[in-house]
Write a structure and sequence with these properties.
eight-stranded mixed beta sheet, 25% strand, Glutaredoxin, 210 residues, two-stranded antiparallel sheet, globular, alpha+beta, 2 domains
């Protein structure tokens, strides 16, 4: 066999080996790549939005910061304990969702973000969220920090005067803010909310938790 023929064979063998190696790497990347998540009832952000540093006070009187959002998915619901209808209805629905998720619920936390710090003291929040689930949390802070955090979350609210100074109410947006385990805004669940659909969507999302 000539030297040229031998060289060609060696080059061909090397080329086949390289192509095989590249193919193996691409196959591994394809297998390991996360599968796209499709949800029915949420608008997922194409690029999750990081949250700024913040400090709330939770139902136990302890600081609740951005670090408390890391490591699991979070549903943040803006509301207040004196809310007559939307808030208790939504939290009751989330309790139904938590129960239906079963063991998967350990990867999810629910936070009532109170936009009524004047009345929603830690003790009040603790009694209120505890009525729905012992795992639910509540937190708030005073103005102007409350407004800063609300804007970062995409929450709108306004105080509406009542017949007496104490009987005011709060109008607020009712979408659930979805926070990923990296403490970023991943999307929004907008009303009307349905328990079965939420369970299906959250089951997919929780399945992506590391």
């Amino acid at each position: 066999m000539s030297d040229a023929s031998s060289a060609n064979k060696t080059a061909l063998t090397l080329l086949i080996a390289v192509v095989g190696l590249i193919g193996g790497v691409l196959a591994a990347v394809y297998v390991r790549a996360p599968k796209p998540v499709t949800v029915q009832s949420a608008t997922l952000l194409q690029t999750p939005r990081p949250l700024p540093e913040f400090t709330l006070t939770d139902q136990d009187g302890e600081p609740f910061t951005r670090d408390n959002l890391r490591g699991k998915w979070t549903l943040i619901f803006p509301g207040f304990t004196y809310c007559p209808d939307v808030c208790p209805t939504t939290l009751g629905l989330l309790k139904t969702v938590e129960t239906a998720l079963g063991p998967r619920a350990q990867h999810l936390q629910v936070l009532l973000f109170s936009i009524d710090p004047e009345r929603d003291t830690p003790d009040t929040l603790k009694r209120y969220v505890g009525y729905f689930s012992p795992t639910f949390r509540g937190a708030t802070t005073s103005e102007p920090e409350l407004q800063r955090i609300a804007q970062a979350l995409g929450v709108a609210y306004i105080k509406v005067a009542g017949d007496t100074p104490e009987s005011y109410t709060m109008d607020h947006s009712a979408a659930l803010i979805l926070i990923n385990p990296q403490a970023e805004i991943a999307g929004y669940f907008t009303p009307p909310l349905n328990a079965d659909t939420l369970v299906q969507d959250l089951t997919q999302l929780l399945g992506t938790t590391p």
